[in-house]
Description:
Number of helices: 0
Shape: globular
CATH architecture: 6 Propeller
Largest sheet: 4 strands, antiparallel
Amino acid sequence: MSQGTNSSYAESLFVVNNDVFVAGIEVRNNKYHAVLWKNGIKTSLTDGTNQSGAISVFVANGDVYVAGYEIINNSEYAVLWKNNVKLTLNDAVNSDASSVFVSGNDVYVAGNDHSGANKARIWKNGVPVYLSNGSNDVVATSVFVSGKDVYAFGQEYRKDSRIIKMWKNGTETSISDENEFSYINSSFVLGNDVYVGGNKNNEPYPSNARIWKNGVPINLTDGTDDANVNGVFVTKN
């Protein structure tokens, strides 16, 4: 991992067999650079000409997929790398990629279109599918496949609330109370159960660390101190 010479940020972790993969960002010469660490050994995903970031990593069938972004000529592009080689995502300009998930031969990427109001979308094998129409500011932060069902998770920003959203096979559902300020940082699906980790902001601060299971909130803190859930992972007994 980072040796402390440059500032760096870990954004995503994936473990398979005895190998640990971390996607993230390293700051060099005041620029962000997309990097991947495998068992602590760093690989740069770009040549450093443009600012970039690696936000999500997924390993399947021996192939390593990383989703992120690259800024080219002052425009942000959603990017997917497979085994350190950049692949084409259609209609990727003015977009970012925040999550990647591989199921069988299909590669899913969640991200956002920033042209105008944020519009949440996923790419399936490089082809974009919009989850929102731009009437409200909506972002997609993660994608998860369970069986034949494709889940995407994200956030809708309103003037007086922040709402956690889920799309199951394209159908939208609100996970959090639509009158609260709630934030999503992580999601996981196990069987028919959907878990979301994040927080519920109180007015005034601090925030409650919270998990939602199938839309039912579970507070992990009492709101005395500011707290947050950054990751959730579920296994069978």
